[in-house]
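User: I'm curious whether this sequence folds into something compact or stays loose and floppy. Could you predict its structure so I can see for myself?
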Amino acid sequence: MCVGVWVACVGVWVGVVVSFNLETEDFVTHGGPRGSKFGFSVSHHRDTAGAWVLVGAPEAQTSQPEVWQGGAVYRCHPAVSGSCEPVPFDLTGNHYDNDNGQQMDNKSMQWFGASLASQSGVIVACAPRYVWFSVKRNRREPVGNCFYTTGRDTHTYQMYSPCMTPSWGYHRQGSCQAGISTTLTQVRCSTRIC
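Assistant: Here's the prediction. I'll summarize afterward.
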């Protein structure tokens, strides 16, 4: 009896919950590479070239050398279907030590584009699964990292990884993974502090 009532309630509830499209006449659709998790994160962006929809695809394959499914962020025109193009945040592959040639990080499956934000023309896009090799390059630390545009120039990008320090292990650095989520705030600077 109890199971029958429960099934009936769920059936009525599912019948009431329906999805819908806000615009049924003039809608726009965007898509990304198959298996890229295109749409994992989305943000609205405005710059000198106009308004854009930014879309994260954390498992997209990029042209980064020696990087497998590093992830990407796409810039899509809000009024033109299928107009997405990758934003060139990081075109380099894994980094290597100039002195001894040892690998310094791993960008494969870093989930770049898992979180992103845009505010006042600045974009921040993050890879929470980025791995840095610390302590003589023999320890693997999943520190995460982010890239941001510098000012209104959306073609210049800077990496930010606050967890990439000489300290390592849970007892010093803790479980620090930058970029699980991200946001930007408006900062007002005075003449002395910024």
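Summary: The radius of gyration is 21 Å. Helices lie at 2-16.
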